Structures are given as structure tokens and as C-alpha cells.
Amino acid sequence: xxxxxxxxxxxxxxxxxxxxxxxxxxxxxxxxxxxxxxxxxxxxxxxxxxxxxxxxxxxxxxxxxxxxxxxxxxxxxxxxxxxxxxxxxxxxxxxxxxxxxxxxxxxxxxxxxxxxxxxxxxxxxxx
Length: 127
Known about the structure:
alpha+beta; 17% helix; globular
């Protein structure tokens, strides 16, 4: 079983995203029988489904903190892959994962993705 989830692009996010190679064709979340994969332009996050600790739908992101490339939260080291300011899904991990720097030194305890159907993604991650 493989499920693909598209990112929901808000108009004002398209140009900043495009500058980093992030388009509807290069941004998606895939859930397989064993893995969670996030593709966001040139950035990737990959982890086992068993590493997903929980999810929570979140809303109301500030444009200046989310537009363009993935953003790192200095508070909790979480990573945000955002294409809109309306809503997304925060995915918490048992063991932190790498995603935004190639050496894998920086690890993230959670990732937020602004997919078109956050509730369906949450359900797919619970299976």
C-alpha cells in the first residue's frame, strides 16, 4: 500500500517556493507500508513508520516564518515544510530524523507538512 499526499500551495507561497525548486511536481509526502517519505524540492525526510510517535493538525502559520525553503524552529529543532499559511500536520518522531542539511548532524524531533488533506495523512500514519 502506497499513499501519496500533495502539498496545498497558497498563491503567495508559489514564488518563494519556486526560487528553491519547490513546485507541486517536486513536493509530496508518501506513506508506504513501512516508511514515511517527504520530498520538498531538493530536501528529503525519510523514516520508518514505526518512528512516528503521533500527529496533530496545526493552523495559522506566519508567512515570513514558513515561505520558501524548509524552516528550522530554534525553540524545538522541528522542521517545517510549508506551502500555505492555513493548516498542516505536525508529525512527531520517537527518534529525531534528519532532513534539511546533507550531513545528517542536525536531527528534528518533529516535522510539519502543509499537505492538502492533513487528516487523511494522519490516518495513513496511524495504520
